[in-house]
Specification:
This protein is mainly alpha-helical. It is about 50% helix and about 0% strand.
Length: about 120
Amino acid sequence: MARDFRKELRKIQYDKFAKYISNLPKGKKLENFKECYDVMGTMMIFRCEGSCRKGGGTQNCQIRQCNQDKKIEGCWQCTQHVDCRKLDVLNGLHGNSHRKNIKNIKKRGIKEFTKGEKNWYS
């Protein structure tokens, strides 16, 4: 979402609008537009752009390494995913939503999962 939003902002040159409108009383908060835009850029760094097996995630991700070692696309293909302690690293960020998503992918398949609703925080 951050990537797409930044793309749309660039397309309409919102930075120029924000610079102009921030001089007006109602637009005062837009003087921080660049910081907001930069934060969205940082958000993009944490996006997994593919399955673990295909290089998604960060270089030092234990989950990614485990998937690569087992030669599987993702945790949904692992028989041990239910009790996997490596997934605990995501608990602080996502509660148990990542485990729900893995269960959903295992049940419906990756193509159907990507079409449907996903759990990000629970």
